[in-house]
Amino acid sequence: MKCVVAGAGMIGLSCGIELINRGFEVCLIDPDSPGSRTSAGNAGGFGVTEIMPMAVPGIIGKMPRWLFDPDGPLSVRWRQLPVLFPWLWRFYRMSSAVQTQRIARVLASLLQQCTEDSRQLIGQAGLQHLLRGEGAMTVYQSKAAFEGDRLEWEMKQRHGIRIERLDARKVRELEPALSGVCGGWLMPQWFNTVDPYQLAAGLADRFRQSGGTIRRDAVQRFAITGKTVAAVKTSQLQNIEADMVVIAAGVWSKALCRQLGERVLMESERGYNATLSDPGIRLKRQIIFGEEKFVATNIGDRIRIGGAAEFAGLHARPRYDRCVRLVNIAKRYLPGLNSEQAENWMGHRPSTPDSLPVICRSGHYHNVYYAFGHGHLGLTMAATTAKLIGQLMSGAQPAMALEALHINRFS
After folding, report:
1. Could you give the C-alpha distances from 223 to 32, 253, 361, in angstroms and in order?
2. Cβ 194 vs Cβ 132: under 8 Å
3. Which of 300, 168, 339, 242 is closest to 233 using CA atoms?
4. What's the CA gap between 30 and 50, in Å, rounded?
5. Are 79 and 172 found together in one domain?
6. Which residues pair with 232 in a beta bridge?
7. Claim to verify: residue 51 and residue 163 sit in the same structural domain
8. What is the DSSP pairing of strand 286-289 with strand 136-140?
9. What backbone phi and psi angles, to 5 degrees, belong to 209?
10. Which domain holds residue 247?
11. Of 314, 334, 351, at which residue does a domain stop?
């Protein structure tokens, strides 16, 4: 059977490889080279412990302070507010204790499969050398902030996630480059890729070697016959016939779903980073700064400082001064950091208000499947998402209940 996958980031590539393994003839379509957008600029962390949604009790009260703090973790372009309002309203509704616990259960069920699935996919592609497994560490400068995140760490323990509480001495012992922290948490289950772009490029090579094709083009419209999408129409005026279609185009999936009559509450949560080519220090693992909500991680011999959440839509110009601010904050923790040679970047995270991806069959067309909306966890969830999509498309029983991930929750 012929399958067209819209999107060639980590989700699309992983779905493509899984579907070839299941006997499908697969074509990926993306206007850019595989993995060169959001998948290339992430921090490279497989955050298999990250069961907490963005919307948690108390976050609404913090947002005004963050919005007016130029160094804060959240920014909204005010002209975007009318478009963003439905998303924000659902986000507010998801921030209750009951909803937080429900969403954490769903994320825990999804994430518990991700380590095995990711290592299996990466091993199949012969890319094990791009992984390192020293875990991750969240650190705090103030005891108030440390205690303020108590819900997150209690929730993780409740779901059986291994974490280790660290005092200031132990933090410095594990990461000598850090300074001025009062404590933190070690998460040994995390692992990282030394280069997310090389990982995506390696998976693209594996996909092609297995018989898949990749077209540099953009899916723009669909040829529909009854309840079936018979073909996709591209920006280069190509009409590509398909027995099955997978929409895995990240935040750009929203426009495609709209054409298929499906409503999606998903916005671009723009993330920024600076990659320092001569950082002057070395980290042993990914560091998460608990108060400011950003990270520092090794990317080969470089260090990437990344994070922040900006809601400004798909087309507004990047504000690279946010990269400079992130690096300046990082220097409070890493006084030896050299930032003279920095490459700034901005990418579009596909963010849903409940922090859950969309993994399901279309409610309108029997041969269309959805795999998008993974927010900060696209790299982490890519292989497991691909397995679930493969199971759905092959008529097999999915490895987990998918009701909470269906697109109809936005209807």
Report:
1. 23, 17, 18
2. yes
3. 242
4. 29
5. yes
6. 222, 240
7. yes
8. parallel
9. -60, -25
10. 2-40+198-264+355-410
11. 351
86 and 151 both lie in a single domain: yes
Nearest CA among 169, 191, 190, 187 for reference residue 178: 169
- Best CA proximity match to 359, nearest among 394, 401, 397, 395: 401
pLDDT tens digit at each of 411 positions of the chain: 999 999 999 999 999 999 999 999 999 999 999 999 888 899 999 999 999 999 999 999 888 888 778 788 889 998 898 999 999 999 999 999 999 999 999 999 999 999 999 999 999 999 999 999 999 999 999 999 999 999 999 999 999 999 999 999 999 999 999 999 999 999 999 999 999 999 999 999 999 999 999 999 999 999 999 999 999 999 999 999 999 999 999 999 999 999 999 999 999 999 999 999 999 999 999 999 999 999 999 999 999 999 989 999 999 999 999 999 999 999 999 999 999 999 999 999 999 999 999 999 999 999 999 999 999 999 999 999 999 999 999 999 999 999 999 999 998
Strand, coil or helix: 4: strand
Residues in the chain, total: 411
The two tokens of residue 42 are 């992430």
Residue with tokens 């933090």: 171
Residue 7 covered by a domain: yes
Which pair of tokens denotes residue 274?
Answer: 């600076």
**Is the sign of the CA dihedral 288, 289, 293, 295 positive or negative?**
negative
Q: Return the number of other C-beta atoms located less than 10 Å from residue 134's C-beta.
A: 16
Contact 233, 223 (CB under 8 A): yes
Domain-embedded: residue 106 = no
Burial 388-399 (b: 16+ CB within 10 A, else e): bbbbbbeeeeee
Write the CA distances from 299 to 40, 44, 196, 223, integer angstroms: 11, 8, 8, 42
Are the beta carbons of 243 and 1 closer than 8 angstroms? Answer: yes
Let me know whether 327 and 208 are in one domain.
Answer: no
For position 270, which CATH number holds?
3.30.9.10
The token duo for 71 is 């160094």
Three-state secondary-structure class, residue 145: helix
Alpha carbon 186 to chain centroid distance?
21
